[in-house]
Amino acid sequence: MAAAVGLTLVPFGPALARPGATTAAEMDWRPRAELPVEVRNRLPAFCEGGYLPLTGEDDQATGADGTESPGELPLNASGLYARYEIDSELVLRGGVELSQGAVTMSGEEARYNQRTGHVRLTGPLVSRGQGFLLTGEEADYDVHSGQLNINTASFLMHSAEMRGVATSLSRVGPSQVDIRQGRLTTCAPDRNDWMVVATDIHLDRAEGFGTAKHVRLEVQDVPVFYWPYISFPIDERRKSGFLYPAFGTANTGSGLYLAAPYYLNLAPHYDATVTPQYMHGRGLLTELEGRYLSSLGQTSLQLGYIDRDRAYARAHPGDNGQRWALDFDTRARFGHGWSGYGEYSVVSDGDYLSDLNRSLDISEATHLQRRGGVRYFGNGQYFELYANGYQTLADRIAERNKPYSQLPEAVYGISRELGAVETSLTAQYTHFYRDNDTLSGRDRANGQRLRVLPQVALPLRALWGYTRPAVTLDHTEYRLTDYTPENQRIGRTVPVFEWDSGLYFDRQSSLFAVPYNQTLEPRLYYAWADAEADQNRIPVFDSALRSFSFDELFRRNRFSGGDRVGDANQLTVALTSRYNDLLSGAERFRWSLGQVYYYADREVTLDGLGAETRSDSPLAGEAVLRPLDGLELRTSLLWDARTRHTEESRSQLVFHSPGYRYLASLGHTYSRGQFEQSDVGAVVPVTDKISLIGRWVYDTQLDRTVGTLAGFEYNNCCWSVQLVSQNYLTSAQQLDNRILFQIQLKGLGGSGGASSKIAEAIHGFEERESLRYGTR
C-alpha cells in the first residue's frame, strides 16, 4: 500500500539548524546564557550549557498516536521546485521538507518512488522524531516501515543527552537506532572527555537500553578499556548486565580490592545482583543480593561467602577460613490495618563485619537482631505479635549482659472516649529466654511477664491551652523458671497519677522588616508513682536507666522496659518559645528550657543505679536557630546550677548554599567525665567544577584525632570523580586508613563507593548528590 502524498510548493527553507552547526548535537546545543531562565536555573553550576529541542517538538507530534504504523500515515512533502510523474515519481529540490507522523526530514533534494514507497534524500539533511535528532549527507527512507538509513551521520537523543557520530546509521523503528562504526558520549559538543567507540551499537529508547559490540572506552581519545560486548542503560530503567567495577583500598584485606557486580533483571518484580570481589591477602568473596516485590510488599535477601579467607585462617590457627553472612528483610501490608515484617541477620564469626562486609545492610554492631511479626492498627486499637532474638558478636560482653530473646511478645492497646473522659488500656505479654546455664541467682532467671496499664484521663483543650489529669494502674505479673522457689511468682502494682498542663501566648511583631509571630508556651507536668522501693528481687529482662535529657523532663518513669517502675513525686516546669516567619511560614527560632523538682527521694534502683536524694534536676535546654533557609544551629544542654558545671552538651552548626554547592558543619559533643569531641566537615568549591571535601574529628579526652576525611571532587556535565582518604579509629584504638574512589560517567553509571561514605560523614552531602543527578 502506497502512502498518500500531500504536495505543497511553499518555500519553507531548512530552518532547523543553528548557523554553522555541523552535527545534530551542535544544532540543539545552547550555551548557558542562551537557555531560558527556568532551564538555566535548574542547570548545575558545572554545566556550561544544555540541549534545547526545537520549540513545539513532541514525541507524538503531527498526529502520530503511537498505535499507527508508518504505512498508515500520510507522507507530506514540500519544496521550492517539484516535478511530479503520476503514479511514478515525485522529485523535490530546494528546501525540501518531508513529514510522516512524528518524523520530519529536510534536505536539498528528495526522490519519492510511489510504487515502492522509497524516498532518496540528499544534501545536508536533518531528521527529527520521537526524541531523536539525526543529520547526514544522504539518506534512504521507507514510508511503509519507517526505516531511515543515513550515511556519514550524527545523532542526538535529547532525554539521555547522548550524542555521537557514525559511518552509517539506521532508524529502524520509532524508538530504535542501529549505528555502525559509531562513537557516542554524553559530553557537550565541544568536549570529548570520554567516548564509547564500537563497531555496532543498538539504541532502544522503548526498552531503555543500548548494546554494543567490540567496544572500547576512550578518555581524551586514549583507549583505556575494552569489552567484546556490553549492554548499558540510556534511561532509568533496569537492564541485566555487568555494572561498573568497584576498586580501591579498604579495611577489607591488606591491599587493593576489585569487584565486578553483575545485575540480573529477572522480572519486573524481582531482580538480583551477584558481586564477586577479589581482596588481596584474603581471596575471592562473593556477595549476592536479591529483591522481590509483590502486591503485599517487598523482600530482600543478601548473602556473603568466602570459601577460604587466608588472612583469617592465619590469624586463627585450626580454622579453615570459610566465612559467610546473611541479611534478610521483608515488609508486607495485608490490608484492613494488618501488616507484617521480618528481619534476620547472622554471620559466621564476630569479625566478619569489620573484615569483609562492604555491601550487606548490616552495620558493625555488638548484636545482630532477628525479629518477625504482625501488626494491626485501626479503630482506636493496636496489636502486635512478634518474636525477637539476637546474635551477640563481641566476645567482651559478659553472659549476664547479653540481651534476652522475646519468644514471643504480644502488645495490645485500645483507647476510647466516654464523653469528656478518655480511657485507654495497654497490655503486654512476653516470654523471655536466654541461655543462663553458667549464671546464678537473679541472672539465671527465665520466664513470662504480663504487664497491664489501664488509664483514665480528663483532657480539656482550648485555643489558649490544655490540661490533662490522668490516673494509671501499672500492674505486672511474673511467672519465672530457674529461680528460687519463693521468687518464681512475683506481682507488682503501682498507682500512678499524672497532670500535664500548658498555656499558649502569642504576639506579632517584625524584625528587619520581616513580620513574625512569637509564642510563649509554659508547661507544668506533675507525676506521682507509689512504687515499692525494693524491686531487686525482680529479674532484669529488658530494663535500663534512661539517660537524662530534655525529653526526659516529661517521663514519669526513669527506667525503660517493664522490670522497674520508678518511684516519683515530681514537678516539671518548662518554657518554650517559637518565632515563625509570617511570610514563609518557616520556624526561624525555637528554644526550650525546663527543670524537674523532686518532693521525695528516689529509692528504686537498677544494678545500684537510679537512686537520688537531691531535690532538683540539672537544667535541660534545647534550641534551634534557622535565620536562613540554608543555615541551622542546633544545641542541647544539661547544666547543673548547684555545681555550675555543664553535664552534657551537643551543638551542631550546618550550612548549605542553594543547590548544596557549599556545605559546612561544625559540631561539639561533651559528656562530663566521659568524652568530649569536636568535628568539622565541609565541601567547598574551588571552581565551578572542583570541590574540596574534608572532615576532622578530635577527641579532647584522648587528646588525639579519631577520624579524618580529605579529598576532592571534580564535576562537569558528562563525568565526575571523587577521591578521598579516610582515617578511622578501630576497636583496637588504632587509626586505620582507606582510599575511597568513585567515578561517574553520565549516562553509563559509575564505579567505586566514595559517595555513600562521604554522606555518612558530612551532613547534607546525600541531598547534594540527589540534586546533582536528579535535576537534569
Verbal overview:
With 776 residues, this protein is mainly beta. Among the domains are: 5-239, Lipopolysaccharide (LPS) transport protein A like domain (lipopolysaccharide transport protein A fold); 628-776, Porin, CATH 2.40.160. The protein is 5% helix and 58% strand. It has six helices and 48 strands. The strands form four sheets. The chain has a 31-stranded antiparallel sheet that branches. Strands 1, 4, 5, 6, 7, 8, 9, 10, 11, 12, 13, 14 and 15 form a 13-stranded mixed sheet that branches. Strand 7 (103-113) and strand 8 (118-129) form a beta hairpin. The longest helix is centred in the C-terminal third of the chain and has 10 residues, at 765-774. The two termini are 43 Å apart. Residues 1-17 and 56-67 have low confidence and may be disordered.
CA-based shape:
elongated
Oligomer: single chain
Cα-based radius of gyration, to the nearest Å? 35 Å
Mean of all residue-level pLDDT scores:
85
What is the C-level CATH assignment of the domain at 5-239?
Mainly Beta
Number of helices: 6
Query: What is the terminal-to-terminal distance?
Result: 43 Å
- Spell out the CATH superfamily of the domain at 5-239: Lipopolysaccharide (LPS) transport protein A like domain
Largest sheet: 31 strands, antiparallel
